[in-house]
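Progress report, Aim 2. The chain analyzed during this reporting quarter is listed below.
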Amino acid sequence: MKEEGFLNGALNQIKEKNTNARFLANQALFNSPDNIKIQASAKVSIAFALNVYNQDHNDLSELVIKATNVRTVGGIKKIIKEAKQIIDDRN
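Predicted C-alpha cells for the chain:
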C-alpha cells in the first residue's frame, strides 16, 4: 500500500465508524494556558483539518504550514481563529 492509499484507508475508517474529532484531538489538548507547548498530535490534527478545509479552495495553505511549525497552545488557537475567518468569508 502506498502512502496515499494508507491515508485513504484511514479516511474510510473514519467514515465507516462515524469517528468524531475527539478521537483525533481531544479538546483537553487545547484547554491549557496559551503559553504551554502544544502537543505534536494536536498540531498534526489541526494541520489535517486545515488540509481538508483547503481542498476545494486553496486559501489555507499558509496556515497549514504555520500549524506544523507552531509551538504553543495560544499559537494553534490563533491559527484556528484565522482559518475560521477565512472559511466564514468564503460564503
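The chain has a mean pLDDT of 93. Residues 24-89 form one domain. These observations will guide the mutagenesis work planned for the next reporting period.
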